[in-house]
Specification:
Strand 3, helix 3 and strand 4 form a beta-alpha-beta unit. The protein is extended, with a radius of gyration of 30 Å. Helix 2 packs parallel to helix 3 and helix 13 crosses helix 15. It folds into three domains: about 130 residues, Response regulator (Rossmann fold, 3-Layer(aba) Sandwich); about 170 residues, Rossmann fold; about 80 residues, Helicase, Ruva Protein, domain 3. The protein has about 400 residues and is an alpha/beta fold.
Length: about 400
Amino acid sequence: MSKILVVDDERAIRRALREILEFEEFEVDEAENGKQGLDKAKAEQYDVIFCDIKMPEMDGMEVLDGLLRAKVDAPVIMISGHGNIETAVQAIKKGAFDFIEKPLDLNRILVTIRNAKDRNVLIEEKKVLKKTVRKFKGSSIIGETDEINNIREMIEKVAPSDARVLVTGANGTGKELVARSLHDLSDRKGNPFIEVNCAAIPSELIESELFGHEKGAFTSAVKQKKGKFELASGGTLFLDEIGDMSASAQAKVLRALQENVIQRVGGEKDIKVNARVVAATNKDLRKEIEEGNFREDLYHRLAVILIHVPSLNERRDDIPLLADHFMTMICAEHGISRKSFEPKALEELQKIDWSGNIRELRNIVERLIILCGDEITGEEVKMFANPGKF
């Protein structure tokens, strides 16, 4: 049964609306002034709210503003005996669903309620769709082994928070995919996902890359540049191969994480940043700490949540799923008809020692698609999986 709130300082109007709505089998609640109506709407869930415009102390427009600030989902139908086109337009612009003049017309009320309920259904469908899309984006981690299912569960738990995550695993295992899934399933998904490969940037440039620089800070700094921390503000900053970061950069990253402020290279001004940091490494950071290559205090700042991504050799049962996924994706990229693997081909793929992990599997699947016929055989896998044999 739909629940409707009627906010009006006139008792006769409230009673008339109650009789009409209860006859149509709606559950009706009343509020005799704007403040009471606003408090009730915040405390309970209503399907539709009727609100008078002309009321003492807090008028209907103020109630509407309060409902919008409180993010009350229920559609608000404004009613007034002193209405005109200007008032109606103003109410609709503010966010009201509709405007009805007094004396109230039964048919108009019922049609408006029906339209408002249809609107509620559409909103709920949109929420479900968005949630489904978010899950789909996060579900690009392919696999059904226990290790992968555990990672998915961890991501779903951790993603809505702002907790920092350290992703560990060998090269090519899909650490970036974990970081992207954390971002896509978080409230920050509409903001930037910025990636920095700490191993690919020379040590003398990493600070400028992360924190930006002021004009003239060094010879080639011909203009001011924002760093990745600033660019990722409001979103997620993915620090890949964090174990290769210089000691100087580590100290500045630590300060940024502690205080949420940075300074550009050559600058003295503190700049507030708000980026969720997800880091990844293929190194044993505990060992790096013992050898004096990595700061222990930075490790503890980064490793609030630890997610380890297993090697492909540790999840061989996922190889058929991954091969099928890459088959679909690569054939689409090349604009050719989808090919298939015979069962023996998948068995041969599972026998390979995958030193390059997922990245190597993708390359081999692409090679097989290019070199083989419509159905890839076990013999072809043995022939072409090792490039040294042809």
